[in-house]
Design a protein that fits this description.
The chain is an alpha/beta fold and 259 residues long. The protein folds into two domains: 6-153, NAD(P)-binding Rossmann-like Domain (Rossmann fold); 158-252, Orthogonal Bundle (N-(1-d-carboxylethyl)-l-norvaline Dehydrogenase, domain 2). The N and C termini lie far apart (61 Å). The chain has helices spanning 13-24, 37-47, 71-80, 136-144, 155-185, 194-206, 222-231, 236-252; strands at residues 6-9, 29-34, 51-53, 64-67, 87-90, 106-111, 128-131, 150-152. It is elongated. It is 44% helix and 13% strand. The structure holds NADP nicotinamide-adenine-dinucleotide phosphate. Residues 10-15, 34-36, 39, 54, 68-71, 73, 77, 91-93, 111, 114-115 line the site of NADP nicotinamide-adenine-dinucleotide phosphate (NAP).
């Protein structure tokens, strides 16, 4: 594909991974900016670019301007940006494309993964979701330079995906952390759970998770549920989550909810 000149606003986790991948595939990074120029400098050095403060960056040379800033800052930065021809793109799953309505050319480039500057990951298998009324083909081709999984999604579909991601990644991880903490408090090695954790994930990917649900709530085993709850009565957070999830499973399998 044609080489695309790209500028970055924000030099955090996502900018770090995208800039390095774009650069690796020959797309020039024409500038990187951040509130703290020092963090932009580190990334600029990695990709042979220049670092500036956000509104000092000359965006005339860019074909694409990536806004890799926290969701809550996207609108405000967009309002203060003066971009004439370049396509301005955000990378947020939960933010509507309309937040960039002031620009003639706008888009979304959402990499569906968890990024940290400290952890190098290959983007080969990372699904990328693009949206743009004007630059859909360019953004899709750019994503295809390094990802095998590129999809066109509108803002509503992206929000739905983001909610599902929160359920299966963030919430599940929180429950794993609660399990680790509970085991630790009771002086039992957390890694004893490893075979069960591995089986949970492999089964949920091999077939529908609804078909492999197990545990006391799915078989309406009230005696075991009461024993668990009696033990957990002083663990306020754990007890609350146990109650909500047990009721959700009971309801799904057609049993009466707990009081
Ligand atoms: N992290 C992920 O796993 C992930 C995955 C997919 C999509 N996303 C999306 O990608 C976007 C960027 O996320 P990120 O994780 O890269 O964020 P991040 O690591 O927190 O980096 C944010 C960058 O924006 C700058 N910034 C922070 N607040 C700002 C403000 N109020 N005004 C101007 N600049 C500000 C920061 O500058 P300083 O360094 O100078 O503070 C930093 O360079 C978000 O829309 C997020 O939803 C994130």
């Amino acid at each position: 594909m044609q080489k695309v000149k790209i500028a970055f606003i924000g030099s955090g986790n996502v900018a770090w991974h995208l800039a390095k991948n774009f650069s690796r595939f020959g797309h020039p990074i024409v500038g990187i900016s951040s509130r703290n120029v020092e963090s932009a400098k580190k990334l600029a050095l990695e990709v042979g670019s220049q670092a500036k403060k956000i509104f000092d960056l000359d965006l005339c040379a860019a074909d694409l301007v990536f806004l890799c800033v926290p969701d809550k800052a996207i609108y405000e930065i967009a309002q203060n940006l003066d971009v004439k021809n370049a396509c301005v793109v955000h990378t947020s799953g939960a933010t509507h494309l309309g937040v960039l309505d002031k620009f003639n050319n706008k888009g979304v480039f959402y990499p569906f993964n968890t990024f940290s500057k400290r952890v190098e990951i290959s983007l080969d298998d990372t699904p990328i979701f693009v949206e743009s009324p004007t630059h859909e083909k360019l953004l899709s081709n750019l994503a295809k330079s390094f990802s095998k999984k590129v999809h066109v999604f509108n803002s509503k579909q992206r929000l739905q995906l983001h909610i599902a991601g929160t359920l299966v990644n963030n919430f599940v991880n929180h429950i794993l952390a609660m399990g680790e903490n509970f085991m630790g408090k009771n002086e039992i090695d957390y890694h004893l759970l490893q075979p069960l954790i591995e089986r949970t994930f492999s089964s949920a990917l091999k077939q529908s998770p609804s078909k492999v649900q197990s545990g006391p709530a799915s078989r309406n085993d009230r005696i075991t549920i009461q024993k668990h709850r009696a033990f957990l009565k002083d663990h306020t957070d754990l007890n609350e989550i146990y109650h909500v999830l047990t009721n959700s499973i009971l309801k799904k399998y057609g049993y009466e909810k707990l009081d």
